[in-house]
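Incident log, structure service

09:12 report received: a user says their structure output differs between two submissions of the same chain.
09:20 pulled the input from the user's history:
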Amino acid sequence: MIFFCTIQDKRTLGMIGLANLQQGLYHLQVNKEAKVLSTTKPSINESATNTISNSNLWHYRLGHLSGNRLNMLCEQFPFIPKHINENCDICHFAKQRKLPYCLSDSRTSKKFDQVHIDIWGPFSKAFIHGEKYFLTILDDFSRYAWIVLLKSKSEVKIYVQNFISLIENQFDSKIKCIRMDNGQKNFLKDFFASKEIIHHTSCVYTPQQNGRVERKHQHIRNVACALMFQSQLPNKTCSLSY
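09:34 re-ran on a clean worker, output below:
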């Protein structure tokens, strides 16, 4: 039994195309004139499909599906051949992911030996007093966090200096190391040198090296979104995206 599909014009209902079912796909029949035109200027796709093996044909058709999934489809649909594991360069480019970053269980032995600092923003909608950023300061030992709302990034230097003075006067302690992202590489360089504070910066495109404060940012945003959604505020107000 031969199955076929006809293509009709909506206005005239005349047949403008015919396709036969072959191996689970409908192949469109092309007239002689179209074949002559196609042979005069072969396309890139045609030249590429001529070299595709039958085992990898469905791998390409289904958007480079994995071999395990293709073998599962082979059991359900006999016209799909069993996939043969071959190196596919397209899969390497299209499906590459960042390698997992090793988790760190290190922890300082004393409060304020290391402090993580990061800024988040701007918000899509400013706060009631015009703040669009918030500064997070996290102690590595106690995991205690200070949150400061900011109207602009230029206020970060003032609040960091005030925080260091607060620790020295109120807690009778000194901060030994401050870790920030790479965007603040020369941040308060002379001030840190006068206080004998080591300034660490994470590598470029490696926020995991300052992951403790990044995780705190995620927690703050999740709590804020949950409270605003619970209050049934408009969607624009609940947006905490960049």
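09:41 both user submissions now match this output. Likely a transient worker issue. Closing.
09:42 reviewer note: The two ends are 59 Å apart (CA to CA). Residues 211-230 form the longest helix (20 residues).
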